[in-house]
Amino acid sequence: MKLHPASRALRGKITAPGDKSISHRSVILGALAKGVTEVSGFLYGADCLATIDCFRKLGVRIEDARRKTDGRQVLQIEGKGIFALDTPFGELNCGNSGTTARLLSGILAAQAFTSIVTGDASLCKRPMKRIMEPLSQMGAVIESVNGNDCCPLRIHGTRLHALDYRMPVASAQVKSAVLLASLYADAASTVHEALPSRDHTELMLRAFGADIRVSEEPEISPLAKKIVLAPGALLRAQKVHVPADISSAAFLIAAALLVPGSEVYLKEVGINPTRAGLLHVLRAFGADVEMTNITNAAEPYADFNVKSSKLVCPEGRLVIEGEIIPTLIDELPVIAVLAAFAEGETVIKNAGELRVKESDRIALLVRNLREMGAEAEETPDGMIIRGGKPLHGAQIKTHGDHRIAMGFAVAALAAEGDTVLDDDACIAVSYPDFFKDLALLS
Ligand code: S3P
């Protein structure tokens, strides 16, 4: 796809697509609950459609009527209860979605049948040992079919034991796999997180009636959390409202900041504090982003008014590291693009997890930023970007990674000359209407 620099300012009101993490979890918990769960604001992106497809193969009726109510589309899931999934016919294909593969594995480990979890070429390269280890400690029998600790996984369902688990990395997918498996364990399980990752699973489990308790562990660290989940509570169907995904809104925010004269109003963007690290970085860059209509639901959200801004690193240097990293891990591609336009040096540290996302995002971000004329270098667990010079169009390699594609589509709007993305279809994973929405705003 060939992209031209923006010829006019971006203006208007828009709702970014539904939150991907919350959408996945609404299908998963809806399937395990008794009764009909209704989800508004669901993200009909390829990743969440893969989750729907897997649960349909497990015998769950899911009505994707995409009926309009208040301009939104309600998804209905006829839950079967946690012990009534069917033996799937064929493999469970999670496509590009690590969340689907990892969370689903936690559930499949406890079923009375054997199943195979697989995905596309990118997913089949991503590490699964991180879930195989704790699930195996619970008694799960999981083999990597190719012996490389990646998908396809063959999961022989069995009875699971309770676990007391200290998370070795901040990962919501690993934490969620363990918590979902814990619904089936013989006693209460505990997960300890030194650095909190996104907590959508905990919030939704509580809303559906699970016996889950979250407390602080100040003796470990000021942010450490302990999550205790006891099996046995009946999960009941709920009405779930999915706010707009801050990870998708981030690309529109960045576009509005970078294209001169822009003013964009984004409605109902999720601001769960375990996801909202981007807002701190935007503030530090001096971005003009005003938050209004803050709604304190279990998953809080707010409207954002964004005006194009000159971005500058405070005192010439911004270091993004430590506890903020899990709260903006998916926004680092767009933050790296913003950093290339911001005057000063941006240093990203402690983000080694970026190397095992949909692509090696550290290598690919630095490669593409340099192609566009930015000064950027890789470090083992992050990157250093010296920004503020004008960028020019380039040939962008995406490795089929939706967030790399959207990040550089935004960079292209503010660069001189045309940019070519080697793949734009991958964007459908999280934001199928991305280019439509950009066109609406321009
Ligand atoms: C997700 C967790 C994060 C994130 C991913 C979605 C989730 O991954 O990067 O896009 O929905 O649980 P990790 O758990 O690997 O950090």
Task: Report what the structure shows.
By secondary structure, the chain is an alpha/beta fold. It folds into two domains: 215 residues, Enolpyruvate transferase domain (UDP-n-acetylglucosamine1-carboxyvinyl-transferase, Chain), CATH 3.65.10; 222 residues, Alpha-beta prism (UDP-n-acetylglucosamine1-carboxyvinyl-transferase, Chain). Helix 4 runs parallel beside helix 5 and helix 9 packs parallel to helix 11. The protein binds shikimate-3-phosphate. The site of shikimate-3-phosphate has 12 residues, from helix 1 and helix 5.
In short:
The protein is α/β, with parallel strands linked by helices. The chain folds into 2 domains: 2-17 and 243-441, Alpha-beta prism (UDP-n-acetylglucosamine1-carboxyvinyl-transferase, Chain), CATH 3.65.10; 20-241, UDP-n-acetylglucosamine1-carboxyvinyl-transferase, Chain (Alpha-beta prism), CATH 3.65.10.10. Helix content is 29%, strand content 28%.
